[in-house]
UniProtKB/TrEMBL annotation:
It is found in: Cell membrane. Binds 1 zinc ion per subunit. The lineage of its organism: Bacteria, Pseudomonadati, Pseudomonadota, Alphaproteobacteria, Hyphomicrobiales. The chain crosses the membrane at residues 7-24, 30-46, 141-162, 174-197. This is Protease HtpX homolog. Belongs to the peptidase M48B family.
Length: 325
């Protein structure tokens, strides 16, 4: 199913590329767009994860440079039955995280310094379990390819503007109307691509992530904190790369609060409600699993926000140096 979904997405992106190319330069423009799309699809499959990580200046860490965080990912991966992914941290005050990679054997998970500074150990475990669920569900290939191709499609809109000024060499069969359509379609291309990826994948990753970490309320508590901070703390890299917004656990862009037609994420309150229902069901009929990573298992509500009991060493709202160590 995931292979078919990926193939359909690539076919859609290729058709969109060719359509905009035709509007800009007629048949010649369409053929050029086809060649570019084919090359971009191939390049994205092998390199889009590296491009996303580079865009956010993410740095790889290991058990020596980030022992507690690295061990957490290792234990969560074992719980999920996944190979150990590469682990990254990117310097940004906005609490958020994402996963990338073409398959579980070539996956990477990344957390912001803001996430590690502001959330408790259990909440971070819930967030990273969600990202590992995306890896296990093979959502990451689709997310990284769409991020790369959506950005490329947006560039075609700029080319449309440049071509429109050259009337003598303009092969556009629809004239100014064709260029105008291409210029209007291009800014919305990223949103259309993100819509092609069903928002239900977030609910699926929430549920599987709760199973991996063993407590739905850890993720529910984390989502509430992240949503409360994501739109008040700017993420300038995300604003410059809006096509990557759908890769994060919470939309990193400002002003995206409603579960509307163009939203890249389900409504946070709905996600929390689903996790609360899952927690209620697990209390009434069995456990979702367990995860400790060497720490006593507690519900997210019972974790203090300050003092020595906080597993990251300080209050969840108090910055600290080296939150990954």
């Amino acid at each position: 199913m995931n292979v078919m979904r990926t193939a359909m997405l690539l076919a859609f992106m290729t058709a969109l590329f060719m359509g905009i190319g035709f509007l800009i330069g007629g048949k010649g423009g369409m053929m050029i767009a086809l060649v570019i799309a084919a090359g971009m699809n191939l390049f994205s499959y092998w390199n889009s994860d590296k491009m996303v990580l580079r865009a956010y200046h993410a740095q790889e860490v290991d058990e020596r440079t980030a022992p507690e965080f690295y061990r957490m990912i290792r234990d969560l991966s074992a719980n999920a039955g996944l190979p150990m992914p590469k682990v990254y941290i990117y310097d940004n005050p906005q609490p958020n995280a994402f996963a990338t990679g073409r398959n579980p054997e070539n996956a990477a998970v990344a957390a912001s310094t803001g996430l590690l500074q502001r959330l408790t150990h259990e909440e971070v475990a819930g967030v990273m379990a969600h990202e590992l669920a995306h890896v296990q569900n093979r959502d990451t290939l689709i997310m990284t390819i769409t991020a790369t191709l959506a950005g490329a499609i947006s560039m075609l809109g700029n080319f449309a503007f440049l071509f429109s000024g050259n009337r003598e060499n303009n092969n556009n069969p629809f004239g100014f109307i064709g260029v105008l359509v291409a210029m209007i379609v291009a800014p919305f291309a990223a949103m259309l691509v993100q819509m092609a990826i069903s928002r239900t994948r977030e609910y699926s990753a929430d549920r599987r992530g709760a199973e991996i970490c063993g407590n739905p309320m850890w993720l529910a508590s984390a989502l509430a904190k992240i949503a409360g901070s994501a739109h008040s703390i700017p993420n300038y890299e995300a604003e410059r790369n809006p096509a990557t917004a759908h890769m994060f656990i919470i939309n990193p862009l400002s002003g995206e609060r409603m579960d509307n037609l163009f939203s890249t994420h389900p409504n946070t309150e709905n996600r929390i409600a689903a996790l609360q229902q899952m927690a209620s069901e697990s209390r009434g009929g069995g456990s979702t699993g367990s995860f400790s990573a060497g720490r006593p298992q507690r519900t997210a509500r019972s974790v203090p926000n300050s003092g020595a009991n906080n597993p990251w060493g300080r209050g969840s709202d108090e910055p600290r140096k080296g939150p990954w160590s």
